[in-house]
Amino acid sequence: PRQNSIVARLWSVIFDHFDPDKEVVLPSLFRMGRVDEVFAMLAFVCATTCTLLPALDDEELFVAQEPLQLSELRAMATFLRCLLYEALWVQGDSDILSKWRNAIPVLPDSVVNKAIELYDQLFERHSRHRLMDDDKWLFPAINRQELGVSSSVGRRAPPPPSMADLSDGEDADSEFEDEAGGAQDDGMEVESEEDSEDEDGHARRSVALSPELASPRVKRILESLPQAVRFEDRVLVFDYFLDQDHTAVVARHQRRIRVKVRRGHEYADAFEALSTEYQHLKPRLQIEFVNAQGLAEAGIDGGGVFKEFLLESCKQAFDPEFGLWRATAEGSLYPNPDSGLVAANHLLHFQFQGRLLGKAVYEGILVELNLAEFFLNLMLGNTNHLHDLQSLDEELYRNVLQLKRVADPGDLALTFSVTRRQQDGQMTEEELVPGGASIPVTRDNYIHYIRRLSTFRLRDEFRLQAMAFFDGFASMVSKSWIKMFKPRELRLVISGSDDGYDVEDMRRHCTYSGGYHPDQPYIHEFWEVVSEFDAERKAQLLRFISSCSKPPLQGFAALNPPLCVSQVRIADDSERLATSSTCVNLLKLPKYSSKAVLRDKLLYSITSASGFELS
């Protein structure tokens, strides 16, 4: 009960000495006692709350509000934001720190680290049940200049293929070094300063804008408390490091890796050709499709064919029907614990699939893939808890909650083991702890049982598969870079947003060919039709053009190649439907006789997919 909660009582004492309107919080806290006593209390209350929160399910926290009320959780988050802002940002400035050192003691790392852990836990709950406005989790003073990025930083188009890239006689393997990763966690060398002039013409020294040159306090915040920085700005930092790594790899590997694949067998052929030959897939891949007769299709892969290959490969690899992945009731994907029954070399498959998805992120290609949040949490090196069990198995989660509420768990005759049905139908017993089959669940140990059960179902059951997948992904994208994101944010980086897109942004960054230009009345009618579509139809249109229903995180300016609407000349409205080349984001739009016909024909094409063709 709340009245007996030492955690609630300790936070009440802290709140009595906390003024959220003040720039710094430590001076008022020191009125509670000596500096060492205050620091010890802060460390203790944060550590105790970090232990308590994972044991509380969402119903206890957000419905019953025991032992902490929602208002206290909000006050706790606000206090921690102010405390961490003071510790990481204000005291992280060497000039300010030298002035304050005698006036205000520096917050020790033992307190800072526990405060960060608690702030993370509260933010994770906020991501499922809103505690306060998103902006209230941010530090106020961190702008893009501090981060070393600007809105112009982002994905750049790959360099055009050289003649060596396209020559028929090249041996791609001869230029490819068999090395892992290549992504450096610690950043790159510091760039030299550049000369410039101010507005009055006076010479000055300016440092090139780069996240590598950001201050130590900014780097520490991005590493330990990324949610204090706007997501959009972290994406810019992430893209910067990907671009730097991509540029370095292209400079080292001038030639592409050639891969031949059969249509409909993209993943199988890619796995056969690439899974054991290369430790990573960072160099450019040149894809050649082979038709049903075994003949190579005509054309040169300038990037679009590679995109089609990558998306089809991912679609096949992550299909639950393939057997390596399972889908929850809500359609979220996680590794099949029984994947070893599907393929003897299943761990090699998971490692290769990690590389494939990492390659998509590395190249800035969105893949519509709904990875489970608890799986993404593991991918970031975090621990799953009881409340994460709900997204895996709602029935099991409800049963566990019921266990917390029975008078005597011993009456249920449970032991520290679980019985599970394998994919082949056989029943197996798994022990949650050594000798768990003979350890009964009692009132004294049921919390430990719940933790072990949650850990087993959310990690241990598919641990080897997850480790193989993470290893493959990390060979493409450094783990230190993705740790700038939370699980739901990482899903956005991989798959894009479900919030739809701005048609005006799409229109601004659209190009035209075949005789169309932006000022034509017919083109105005086309955009009017698109604007009148509902969210579902807009998503279908974008998928029809680009193979992905979601726009780039940085908007259509980042779409590569740019969206293009090309004119198809017809003599009669019944002659042809709109078609697309998704590999180059091209919509081939006939010039119909009226806006009404345009709308009907376009809707038919995007909803039935009957107008698709490969150019």
Cα-based radius of gyration, to the nearest Å: 28 Å
Q: How helix-rich are the residues, as a percent range?
A: 40-55%
- Contiguous runs where pLDDT drops below 50 for at least 5 residues: 155-208, 610-615
Count the DSSP helices. Answer: 26
Give descriptors for this structure:
615 residues; alpha/beta; four-stranded mixed sheet; globular; disordered C terminus
Walk me through the topology:
Blueprint: H1 6-16, H2 26-29, H3 35-52, H4 58-64, H5 70-90, H6 94-100, H7 109-128, H8 144-147, H9 163-166, H10 172-175, E1 194-197, E2 203-206, H11 216-224, H12 231-252, E3 257-262, H13 266-274, E4 285-290, H14 304-317, E5 325-327, E6 333-335, H15 346-363, H16 373-379, H17 389-392, H18 394-405, E7 417-421, E8 427-431, H19 446-458, H20 463-474, H21 479-482, H22 487-495, H23 503-508, E9 511-513, H24 521-532, H25 535-546, E10 564-568, E11 579-581, E12 586-590, H26 595-608
Parallel strand pairs: 3-4, 9-10, 10-12
Antiparallel strand pairs: 1-2, 5-6, 7-8, 11-12
